[in-house]
Write a structure and sequence with these properties.
Strand content: 35-45%
Low-confidence stretches: none
Largest sheet: 7 strands, antiparallel
Number of strands: 11
Strand order of the largest sheet: 2-1-9-10-11-6-5
Mean pLDDT: 86
Oligomer: single chain
Structural class: mainly beta
Radius of gyration: 23 Å
Shape: extended
């Protein structure tokens, strides 16, 4: 179940006059975060400016399941050489590894059709970039949910070096009288 603000729930229950756009947040490993929208114009929501008139982002469907399953999201980013990601051309930056380990978050923003004011948003998906495929003017990105981190292979038996301190000695921390 997805949560929504009371204002958004009230508007959706009382009116069918609204627009929907996607909001994308791409946080690179170095600390830079890029904000984009699939709208035809730039949108300011929650004091964040989402750029909508530069690159084109298309995404696949999102879904929610109960249980432990790694969800994936497929995205395609189309950009011109003049469109920048952290100071470098988008496609070149992706090809050079700028998206390696990046976090992606996707939300759906609802906008009042008459006033063009944002009503509220609903969180759709978040995860880490796992695979990219760069073309000349576009990048295909596969994003896996954070549950992917649970797929780390661990050995059945763990062997570690013994303690280097003397039992009940100064570095041990145990008290002999206890």
């Amino acid at each position: 179940m997805r949560s929504a603000s009371p204002a958004l729930v009230a508007h959706l229950a009382s009116s069918s006059n609204f627009l929907m756009v996607d909001l994308y947040s791409i946080a690179l490993v170095g600390g830079f975060t890029a904000y984009y929208t699939n709208a035809q114009t730039t949108i300011v929501y929650d004091s964040i400016t989402y750029i909508g008139d530069e690159i084109i982002i298309e995404r696949g469907n999102t879904r929610s399941v109960i249980g432990v399953e790694v969800d994936t999201l497929d995205m395609t980013v189309t950009a011109e050489p003049t469109h920048l990601l952290n100071g470098s051309p988008w496609i070149s930056a992706a090809r050079a590894g700028a998206l390696d380990g990046a976090s992606v978050s996707v939300s759906k923003l609802f906008i009042n059709q008459q006033t063009l004011a944002p009503i509220g948003s609903v969180f759709l998906f978040s995860g880490r970039v796992s695979d990219i495929d760069c073309g000349r003017f576009s990048v295909s990105i596969q994003v896996n949910s954070q549950l992917e981190l649970l797929n780390i292979q661990m050995p059945r038996n763990m062997y570690q070096p013994g303690c280097k301190n003397i039992l009940f000695g100064q570095g041990c921390g145990l008290i002999k009288s206890d």
